[in-house]
């Protein structure tokens, strides 16, 4: 904000442009467009009723969290959620046995075992499902009594292939990690995603809680399972890949803000950084594939998609240029209205942090005003969080083809994907191994 004022004044007095002015105009222009488009977005109001199959892939999950997730889904009417398919990893036979024992009386709940990998779990669950509308809910995500009713409303439009709801952080004020994660996710699901949904072009239907038409995604599953990048089989990024395949096929992928789901945040900064590293690697691969002849340059046929994917790269470039300009300006002493004394250096750094903090408060104010918590007092630390994310993003670009599921790995787990074996009901498989 303060640098914007300074650059405008300098431009009026001296003319010409520099890196600061270009970057500032770029970021604020994008933000204003997103704000306008997000305000034009409206969720679907007309009811849509159809029987649903709910798929819950699980791996290396806390059993209490998994049980809470499943039990919330079981509360739905049998006329709407006719079956719940929990897909366990073949390396975790104890989880399958736990579920079979705990929910022995639940006729709607089925437990199946899949080969290692989230993609394989989604593939197994979709093929097992008997309904046209299938919802994938991750094992650390909780729905309320209205989530799924709202999530399927956009399917009134036959062109809609997939929908995603408002994905919020569970217990957002328990820690600073949760709160910062809440700010980022809330901004995404209140501004960026609604803006894209206005055009039916949400580029990633977040896999935490999402719904699809089975007839649309069933033919796409081989491309999901067998995706390779520079010769390596892709492990994570199933939600982005499946969304890209639907968009490429001409489907509308939309957001339903009234479908609220709650997901457990990574418990520490270390795990959060690793989660974001995985996400950024997935994004790098997905956008390169969609924008180039690698995948038929399909994104350019839908300009909103192409623009959003280009922003992924230009945002990183612009942030890099800003940091470079900041370092050079401090080194040269030609920065804002200050000189070279220690007081001047301290004052201009303090002014920079104040400006960044005020800018971020303005940008997320539509989100902050709904959070009645003292955690907002930690907001001056948010620019440092964003700087860490920029570093993670750069590292992800240079290591984008490092495959693996790095936030749920145990010995021999997470990122391994061998040859698939026949998927069968868990009770049959377990009996055969006794």
Topology:
Blueprint: H1 2-14, H2 19-40, E1 52-58, H3 63-74, E2 81-89, H4 93-102, E3 109-114, H5 118-128, E4 133-137, E5 141-143, H6 147-151, E6 160-169, H7 176-197, E7 209-213, H8 214-217, H9 221-225, E8 228-229, E9 232-233, H10 238-248, E10 252-263, H11 269-291, H12 303-332, H13 342-368, H14 382-398, H15 426-432
Parallel strand pairs: 1-2, 1-4, 2-3, 6-10
Antiparallel strand pairs: 4-7, 5-10, 6-7, 8-9
Helix pairs in contact: 1-2, 2-7, 2-12, 7-13, 11-12, 11-14
Structural notes for this entry:
The termini are far apart. Mean pLDDT is 83; it is low at 409-434. With 434 residues, the chain is of the alpha/beta class. It has 15 helices and ten strands. The relative contact order is 0.14. It has one domain: Spore Coat Polysaccharide Biosynthesis Protein SpsA, Chain A (Alpha-Beta Complex), CATH 3.90.550.10. The chain has helices at residues 2-14, 19-40, 63-74, 93-102, 118-128, 147-151, 176-197, 214-217, 221-225, 238-248, 269-291, 303-332, 342-368, 382-398, 426-432; strands at 52-58, 81-89, 109-114, 133-137, 141-143, 160-169, 209-213, 228-229, 232-233, 252-263. β8 (228-229) and β9 (232-233) form a beta hairpin. The radius of gyration is 23 Å and the shape is globular. It has an eight-stranded mixed sheet, with helices on both faces. A two-stranded antiparallel ribbon has the order 8-9.
